[in-house]
Amino acid sequence: MGLFDRLSRVVRANLNDLVSRAEDPEKVLEQTLVDMSEDLVQLKQAFAQSLSSQKRIESQYKKSLMEANNWEQRAKLAISRKEEDLAREALVRKKSYSETALTLNEQLNQQNAQLETMRQNLATLESKIGEAKTKKNILIARSKAAKATQSLQKTMSGLDTSTSMSAFERMESKVLDMEAQSQSVGELAAAGVEGQFAQLEASSEVDEELAMLKTQISGSSTPQGILPESTEDSDFSSKDQITDDEELEKLKRELNNM
């Protein structure tokens, strides 16, 4: 294979590829229907011309038959009048018209066959056009759906879904942290209030117990105006007071060390 042949094949291949990629299904289908409709118009025109030709041939055929019959009658008339030469001439004319009629009859048969073929072609082409119109609408709808799907796929492929989902996850984590912080603050506030009430309750209990102790001590102490019976009891009382003072001092030291 020569260089120019190979180069020509490469060029044709590239051109075919460009044409194939440039083809829009909707436009190609529309143009195909236009071409088929133009073919149908041309075929109808040819059929009309053939039909007109058939009628003309049929008229000539009938006229030739009629002329052949007329010259036959004239030949008979000439023979009856003993005019053989005239009868012979009439038969020559009859023969000519008969041959013309025979030729026209052959043409008429051919024309009828051609018209029948054209009639079938017309019916077939009209049927194909109707079918093509239905298919065109379906194919155009499918083409549009395919284009929409392809566009959607391109859009989806251009989206970074992992980054978007990561952002959602970060925001979800942040919201959870904020909710946890809010709950903790609420719990701390509740704990502070409960602690204050607990302190109040504890203070109240201590005050009550202190009052009870005061009552007990005051009830057990010696009433005023009554003197001790002996000095021994006074000595014991003084000793008990010293012991109590020591206990109080010890208690103060322990409380201060706490």
UniProtKB/TrEMBL annotation:
Residues 215-224 have a biased composition (Polar residues). Keywords: Coiled coil. Residues 213-258 are annotated as: Disordered. Residues 249-258 have a biased composition (Basic and acidic residues). Signal peptide: none annotated. InterPro entries: PspA_VIPP1. Residues 94-135 form a coiled coil. The keyword Coiled coil applies. Belongs to the PspA/Vipp/IM30 family. This is Phage shock protein A (IM30), suppresses sigma54-dependent transcription. It comes from Atelocyanobacterium thalassa (isolate ALOHA).
